[in-house]
Design goal:
Layout: H1 2-18, H2 28-53, H3 60-88, H4 96-135, H5 178-189, E1 196-201, H6 208-216, H7 219-224, E2 227-232, H8 239-253, H9 267-278, E3 283-290, H10 293-299, E4 311-316, H11 319-324, E5 331-335, H12 341-352, H13 363-373, H14 377-387, H15 394-402, H16 404-410, H17 415-426, H18 430-438, E6 448-449, H19 450-460, H20 471-484, E7 489-493, E8 499-503, H21 506-518, E9 523-525, E10 538-544, H22 547-554, E11 561-567, E12 587-589, E13 610-612, E14 633-635, E15 656-658, E16 661-664, E17 671-674, E18 690-695, H23 700-706, E19 714-720, H24 725-733, E20 740-745, E21 765-769, E22 787-791, H25 800-803, E23 811-815, E24 822-825, E25 835-839, E26 846-849, E27 859-862, E28 882-886, H26 890-894, H27 904-907, E29 912-919, E30 922-927
Parallel strand pairs: 1-4, 1-5, 2-3, 3-4, 9-10, 10-11, 11-12, 12-13, 13-14, 14-15, 15-18, 18-19, 19-20, 20-21, 21-22, 22-23, 23-25, 24-26, 25-27, 27-28, 28-29
Antiparallel strand pairs: 6-8, 7-8, 16-17, 29-30
Amino acid sequence: MAEIAVTVVINRLLSLLTEEARLLRGVHSEVEDIKRELSYIQAFLKDADAKAEKGDTISHGLKTWVQELRETAYSIEDLVDEYIHHFANRPRRSGVIFDFLSKVSCLIAKLKPRHEIASKVKDLKLKVGKLHDESSRYGFISSFEQGSGGSSDTINVQWRDPRMKALFIEEAEIVGIESPKGELINWLVEVAAERTMISVVGMGGLGKTTLAKMVYDNEKVVELFVCRAWITVSQSFKMEMVLQNMIKKFYEAMKDTIPEGMDVMDVISLSGLLKKYLEDKRYAIVFDDVWGLEFWEFIKSFLPENRRGSRIVITTRNVDVGCAIRESRFHHVHNLQPLPLEISWELFCKKAFQGSCCPSELKKISIDIVKRCAGLPLAIVAIAGALLTKQKNELEWQKFNDSLGSKLETNPHLESITKILSLSYNDLPHFLKSCFLYCAVFPEDYSINCAKLIRLWVAEGFVKGEKGVPLEQRAEEYLNELINRSLVQLSEVDDVGRIRRCKVHDLMREIILKKAEELSFCHVLGDEDSSFNGKFRRGSVQQGTNTIAMEAINRNAQIRSLLLFNINAVPMLLTGISFTNFKLLKVLDFEEAPLYSVPEDLGNLFHLRYLSVRGTKVKMLPKSIGKLQNLQTLDLKHSPVDELPVEIMKLKKLRHILAYSYHFNPKGLFRTARGVHIGEGIGSMLDLQKLCYVEANNGRGLIEELGKLRQLRRLAIVNLMEEDGLSMCASISNMKYLESLVIFSKDDGILNLQTVSDPPKHLRNLCLQGGLSRLPNWLLELRSLVRVDLRNIRLSYDPMEAFQALPNLFELCLSNAYGGECFCFTELGFQKLKVLRLFDMKGLKTLNIHEGALPVLESLEIEPSPQMEVPSGIRLLKTLTRLDFWGMPREFAYSMLPQVGQNYHIVEHVPNVFFHEFHADGRKILRLR
């Protein structure tokens, strides 16, 4: 695990040696030497971490060496940042006289700090050299040198794979797999002659191996597939051994004599033997615990497609692996889900109470424990087994639950949870380990905003740059990789399939939090941490006022990140005392904290990259914010800040300005946005990716400057005047990478947006509010549009014919868009539309839906249209799953009542039909059935 810290430092030194070489006068060679020594040590750390991850018992001496190396790496990182901060803060000179005076004063002021830094560099060089020399005694295998050495200082213990237990569980002990078991058996025994692949995908501990073994041993499967084999693959495999194992298993199943000399055959000979043996047989094979795509690429050509109904099953934690074998339509993927609460409870009682009922006094705490397991069978069984050794009283079980995180490491009954869940973490490359460990800063059972997480990763420097690819895009790829590896779970996906929120399983979070604390990577501080005196790089303050916890942070001057969650009051440390002690801070997150002001000396945080006062009571930003030369993200969302100081224009590295709040109308249907006032000069912020929402208060000058922001991915502007429309169109034409565009006119006036000469071809989301004489022609050229939201555009003609030509439109929302009586949806129109919302169309009477229109529509909402008749074409929408009517007369709803309503036949196929009524005391929702 020390490799993470060392790798971060090496990358930091590389940046210093290249981008900041001008600052290294006098110490360049020492810094180069430190980088070279660390690179050499890094090669051995891969082996050291591998030994620890596999459970090898390592000596106290080795642990001390690794810890000292990690602390030295952190010291180097601190020194690098101090060095840059020191020299970047030199005053700028202008003029001959000032130049002379400045040289004299700076020479006196800077000689001592420069000498101190140079001295520290030399000391650290000696320390790293010593660590290098000591590394030889531990017998590590270098990743770029051959050879290994034994050592009396290291004791190797054979690692037992806890997954082996799954192969010997009796079926009577298992609950909750009847449905997936039946599905898999049906796929195996179906009559298709083509070779069929089946993937079972899910996070570690869900029971993939257990399920696959139950199916493999099922009598129907055994009877149909005489030639069969079970192969456990795991993270590391040797091609020869896999092929030898497959041949032996197949020959044994067929009761044939195993060929002689297999042990000395190479891969080519073994693969030829296997393929020849299987070419005339119907075979079934299970590859359990496949980790990488390279395994399937290796093995697929040795398994013949002989049209005899053969079946190949793999179990994997990686979605990419499960989908990679899809090479024909004969492929099934079963995404194994966590057990529902009632099944989890049944399994827990079966194990913890040996089939008896749960005592009433233990019911509440038992349910709490089961909920923490979040449907993970491995955790339920292991924890229930551990509780068998405890006295059956509420206090004892409550103590166990409160200390569950620490017991995962120390209780032998829970060892299997840690080992199995840790396998997925251990398989990560070091840069993904940093990203995943960062998830530990969020509270237990916390739904993480994905966009925020991505911005935090970028601010922390975890994301590797790639020419032509924004850091945020690379970070999104990292997140998808963690999701596909079943380490991060989806918790919210929007209508177009974009991941909005994610979470980490509570027990997995306990494991990575433990690892993160061992690494000094981060520490979670609560009121119970009053005695904590250790070092950490990132602090997560959770619950209460945590004044004592903040004192622990105050003792860690090298802290890089500070995030606050669910606190009742912001400690004085962050409101009334100087930030001088925290000059290395990169992340400062006050989201939802009861904060009313930001200290004036905020500008002392030279390295700050991420600042959030989202959801706070902060009204103004200090002028010193102009000194934050490295700031990337400024998040003011849902705060009272309505104007940015002019000094903001100095921040050339800003990538995200999020400064707006939503206001909903009394019915809660529509939201408007308040933007932030910003002065001219924004055109100099060339790195901006997101800018929303901006008040168009400075008129044409501001609008024209927006055209210089060619990297923008998201832009939202409010209160646009009609006369500024032409300038707005010209600016939009320069934004080649724009993906989301929001424009609100002033007082719902006219939007003059007809003349965008070069519309952004990547635009996916478009929201316009204001009058349009006609739809802009360029809008209909946007082939990538998936979401369109048009409000108060007040067209004089039915726009549906134009919209249905958009090939990828997924969601369409129209409000006060048309004054006519009918919307017409023609045959083959809207082939991908899944969500349709029609609001505030007072004259609308009906929807004319032709056969073949809206073939995949799932949700339809219609808001007050007093003259509306129940559209008969709804009965043609076979995929519709939800239908909402807002503010309609009671008679309209009664006409669709089951059995008695004359229009019930139109909506009887829709499972969810809702009527929303508005009253003085709020909104009432009626469900049809």
